[in-house]
Amino acid sequence: SRPLVYVTRRVPQSGVDILRKTCDISQWNSDDPVPRDELLRNVEGKDALFCLLTDKIDKELLDRAGSKLRAVATMSVGYDHIDVVECSRRNISVGFTPDVLTSATAELTVSLLLATARRLKEGISAVKNGSWGTWKPLWLCGQGLDGATVGIVGLGRIGTAVAKRLQPFGVDKILYNDAIETKNAREVGAHFVSLDELLKNSDFVLCCCALTDENKGLFNEAAFSKMKKNAIFINTSRGGMVNQDALFKALSTGQIAGAGLDVTTPEPLPTNHPLLTLDNCIILPHIASATYKSRYAMSELTARNISAALQGQEMPCQVKL
Ligand code: GLV
Ligand code: GLV
Fold it and tell me: Whose CA is nearest to atom 5 of ligand 1?
């Protein structure tokens, strides 16, 4: 009989079409996340799970799924929502979607950087609310990238793609910090430095690393206090990288100049959250990979990850412990 796959959301159809050729599919056919109790009920007896970053894949869920489950594939590059150790213990392959979203995510990172540095949020609201009086020499001045030092925390696929895209803007120096010096660095002219050095010397600090138990809350009060007063902080990784109370304090006291976030804790951020009251903080609703090309490719890669695992093969993009 055909393997059973549960798809936890309405997703780009091209991925579902790939799975339909060989599998029987049941799907949470909504644009909103499947409620937890519904998810737990629906994974029972499935061979594979096509999930999103909004689904927590933990021991409880794996227990409910039962012993047939062989593959968990997430339509995301991040897999911090999946207990990969527990999956490995049960011989369940875990798939993710690197590469196909690198360009889109790098573009959005640069967009957020430019938008924050050049104060677009304040400019747009000034035009809209009538506080645009006239052209003024120093009104809404921000910082350009020309001659700037950019620090990238996490020079992986996305961090490297960001560095490449920044070079034509005339940045002076790209610094990076990562677990180890990477060979990507040479091709983008990035210099390996300690995190402290990066924080102290960068005009722009970009968070482009994967969230882990070890680096959770890395951008805390101590980190913001080391940054330059003109520093702009950008996060397109995971909200969990940042202590948001510390960020609010740093932004509201002028310890740093601005922040651009595509990710927050929680998501969505409550509309009465203090960060939303700040003119120097731009917050986007986790859209870094949101191009049609990228989202379709993510859906297809997730499906191919599942198909491979169900045929007893290694996934095209399998998480390695
Ligand atoms: C998005 O955040 C992803 O991990 O793909
Ligand atoms: C992280 O997953 C990256 O692609 O850089």
Answer: 76
